[in-house]
Amino acid sequence: MQWFLDLLPLSDLSRIELGFWSFPILLGLIFLRAPIGLAMLLCGFGGWYFAMNGNPTPLLAKLKSETYSTFSSYSLTIIPMFLLMGQFATLSGMSTALFKAAESFLGHRRGGVAMAAVGACAGFGAICGSSLATAATMSRVALPELRRYGYSGGFSTATLAAGGTLGILIPPSVILVIYAIITEQNIAKLFLAAFIPGILAAVGYVITISIYVRLYPDSAGTRAPQPMSERWKALAETWPVLLIFGLVVGGIYAGWFTPTEGSAVGAAGTGLVALVSGNLNWAVFRDSLIGTAKTTAMIFFIVLGAGFYNGFLALSGVPQFMADYVLGQGLSPWVVLIIILVFYMIFGCVMDSLSMILLTVPIFFPVISAMDFGMSPEHVAIWFGILVLIVVEVGLITPPVGMNLFIINAMDRTTPITKTYKAVMFFVGSDIVRVAILVAFPAITLFLIP
User: Fold this and answer.
1) Taking the alpha carbons of 263, 264, 265, 269 in that order, is the dihedral positive or negative?
2) How far is it, in rounded angstroms, from Cα 81 to Cα 262?
3) What is the mean pLDDT of residues 341-345?
4) I want to staple 305 with a disulfide (CB 3.0 to 4.6 A). Which of 41, 55, 70, 78 is the partner?
5) Is the dihedral of CA 133, 137, 142, 144 positive or negative?
6) Residue 134 Cα distances to 83, 95, 254, 353, angstroms
7) pLDDT for 433
């Protein structure tokens, strides 16, 4: 085996050259459909081996220490708790209640049922934290209603794909937790900073729907308005969502418990609601735990692979080299930021959000941190985190490989994905406008941060 490794040209490269060569190798593995966690683990493993001149002892020691240090992190326990919270929220009928309430107030307007779907996605995202789960859950609830009132297939699926992205923007958000851990930022402050951009996202999508149905009048039907008594009745049935969201988020900012403890309180609360609603029995409870465990294992394996790969990159000196190189070019901090955001949008077409965050933030964050944006380092880190989250969210609905698009398409086989592609570009345009606003006016993101 050793003689084969010695024949590889990588054995003669310097550490920083190894670091740069690892990028095309990693992308090649991803395009060959290797799991992203495995691809990063293999690149990190190989990089460490060649950087240590073929000595396996430091590599094995790193593998042991990295595994322990990664999974012994108390902050990571927030991920399975929020995932379990989303599982219970799906079972308890909260998604249906949210959609019915939004539909009762908006359904009679032009494009109103689609607007209601976006509003319900925003509400469900506040207790779920996962974009894919939000898109899948709300599709089961809203697609039949959209079809019932004459909404076209491409417009319906595009609306739900875009609405699903609100799941990772409106707190709590699993992706924000990962970003906070990587950059060592305060999770509660990141959640707080995401509120206004999340509201802007929902409002932007509603405006987009209004524009779309005026450009394409045949894409949406109409329905009769409901009596005001029915509207208030439907709104009253959303009290579990308001209670749990207020308890979790309000409790975190009131200092009653930490974000990690809040995730456990949220999971327990949604589980109790599911139990009271009669939707939770032993079989369903077991399936929820198994589903949470599978998703958590997938995320944790990606986190481990990213930790090992990013450790190799730190050893190679690539992040510091890139930071020094960018600073040496004399570019404006704003130009550098825009280039990075465009990079995220492009790669969002071919990679999932979690992988992009874990792979790129350790490289780009030192570059942004070294720039002078006229703000404190903490504010820069929080602002950058929200911007990254938004452009990663755009990647979820950007053709050809937007993950949400495939989730929705799998649930509506009668609609060609090309029609979804055409309609979803209106929502991508809305996202680009929102990113431009938040870049130009950082105070919008940082308004609630002390």
Assistant:
1) positive
2) 9
3) 84
4) 41
5) positive
6) 11, 9, 27, 15
7) 92
Q: C-alpha distances in angstroms, 296 versus 4, 76, 292, 302, 307?
A: 37, 10, 6, 10, 16
- Please count the CA atoms within 13 angstroms of the CA of 157 that sit on its side-chain side: 26
Q: What digits encode the pLDDT tens for the residues 238-261?
A: 777 778 878 887 887 777 888 778
pLDDT tens readout for residues 158-195: 888 888 888 778 777 788 888 888 888 888 888 888 88
| In the chain, % of residues over pLDDT 90 | 9
Instruction: Tell me the CA distances in angstroms from 123 to 138, 242, 361, one per residue in order.
Output: 11, 9, 28
Per-residue confidence (pLDDT) for residue 434, from 0 to 100? 93
Give me 48's structure tokens: 């460490």
The dihedral built from the CA positions of residue 216, 219, 223 and 225, taken in this order, carries a sign that is negative
Distance separating alpha carbons of residues 404 and 386, to the nearest angstrom: 20
Q: Which residues contact 18 (CB under 8 A, 6 or more apart)?
A: 10, 47, 50, 51, 316
Residue 224 DSSP label: P
User: Phi and psi (nearest 5°) for 257?
Assistant: -155, 165
What DSSP string runs through 389-406?
Answer: HHHHHHHTTSTTS-HHHH
What residue type is assigned to position 258 of the chain?
T
Could you give the CA distance from residue 347 to residue 359 in angstroms, rounded to a whole number? 11
Name the H helices within 72-152: 78-91, 94-106, 112-128, 131-148
Whether the per-residue pLDDT at 9 is higher than 60: the answer is no
| Ordered alpha helix ranges (H), 32-93 | 36-51, 56-71, 78-91
Mean per-residue pLDDT over the chain, rounded: 81
pLDDT at 374 over 70: yes
Rounded Cα distance between 134 and 166, Å, is 8
